[in-house]
Specification:
three-stranded antiparallel β-sheet; 3 strands; mainly alpha; 624 residues; 2% strand; 28 helices
Length: 624
Amino acid sequence: MNVSWIDWAIVAVTILVCFVPALFLAKRSGSSTTEFFASGRSVPWWLAGLSMVATTFSSDTPNWVTEQVRRYGVAGNWQWWAFVLTGIATVFFFARLWRRSGVLTDLEFYELRYSGKEASLVRGFRAVYLGLFFNCFIMGMVTLAACKIANILFGLAPWQTILLTGVLNVIFAAHSGLWGVLVIDMIQFFIKMTAVFAAAWFSLVEVGRRLAGTPEAWAGLKALVGTLATQQVVQGAADAQPVMSMKDGAGQPILDMMPNFAMSDLALMIFILPIAISWWANWYPGAEPGGGSYIAQRMLASKSEKDALGGTLFFNLAHYVLRPWPWIITALCSIIVYPDLASIKAAFPTADATLIGHDSAFPAMLKFLPVGFVGLMIGGLIAANSSTILTHLNWGSSYLVHDFYRRFIRRDATEAHYVMAGRLTTILLFVCSALLSLTMSSAQQAFQVLLSIGAGTGLLYIARWFWWRVSAWCEIVAMAVSLITSLVVPKLMPDAGFAVVTIVQVGITTVAWLITAFVAPATDRATLVAFVQKVKPAGSGWSWVRREAGISDAEVAAENNLGLSAAGWVLGCVLIWSSLFAIGQWLYLPGDPSRRGDALLLTAIFVVSGVGLLAVVRRLWATR
């Protein structure tokens, strides 16, 4: 890609605008671990929400979405759209409970909720397991995407990309703490959104030039929809590349937002498994059943329960409604411009062939950006990479320092000592993640590995808020069994697809920890009573504990209002899906006028559910 001096100037300005404000927060962040890891618990809802959105918008996200669209059509996105159920459940059932717990990290929760050495064991083990292994794996995914983008656009080798992004990210993460991450996230969100809209627009311009002979976005949109409306994608055997062909019912229609259920294996993987099982059964950072990881970090840093609820709600609306369609449109355009991997390789002959996959089609489309927008996109991609990496460096460091080092190794040091330990840990985490990224091949592969390792643990993370019998031993068994089954089940079922293997893993892990809940030593009564007195969880699973704690059912009902929360959950899911699909139908309309009825119906559902959701949120906020 040819980058002019104007573009480089825009890149420089973008980086300065994003990162310089964070420099002024170093003194405040370095004053204590509460400031460094939780921003003094004084974050307003809008900043918490923007930070959550920016964090989950990483450099690998548009690449991953592009791969799903090219392999499975638009319906392939149900692999993450199904997690709307998880996200909105966190808003209405768990956000206030997390904020009420008052812990600094979600791992500190274990010694609030459980008792004995087993509680300490879970906290310490998960601090290393999540803070180091899982966290580095996720950062490795993001770094892999950055390497692919930089290789396509500039011909950079992976080590060069890692060095350039690492210096920037590590310096700021170690210097400014969570306050700096939040401020950087806020600015980066607007830059990234502008950049991806520009990518979609100019991709349509290129499609208009090729298909309609008119380099205009509107002409490109009409031609794109008109062409792809007749196309389907057919999966090849094993690792063979998907093939595009005319629709005949034997493949997945590219533009359809629902899967072709006649293709049972495909429908099971991209829709049935996510919507029926994955959202509640699988642990995945950013979409954890019951809340957790960096989403919990933002909720715990919020000023109040009201801010925790509002920030998480804003995050889910922006995450699932505002962001997907620019990525999807760009991915659809890539099918016209680069119908197969050979065409990507031909367009970028100097790129490393081992890095090229369907997820490379997104950066490949960026070659059509004009001067000025190239700089904005480069700045946006740097911002996307940094917002995610900075969050994971701070989040992982909080686990390793607060939940492991401070808890088990050095308990009596000064706050300055622990802040310095956090800064040194930040460097260690990036080095580990960079090395791990060199062993990965695609975003989809890494996504499935993460889902596999956490398969079957999700229901546990929900149940522990509603049932006293869930103990630290349940957590230990769930983690051990999910890890073992992720290694053993695929070997025992070599011919089974990912979806079938995951279902088996979920079943084994869930049964294992449920049995443990009844046969293993229970959490001691004093700990359960103290937990109920502080957090006031709802549900009949705490009835006897509430009686011992001297808390009435009426008081708990007033604090949680499960009926209103359930209504908010349903309305929130309907609102997000109806608006998401309404936008898609309106975008398809210029090239396919028959979609007008569906677009109007979905818009009406969006309006009605939105009015209902607003009423629910106002009533919930009125009591906080």
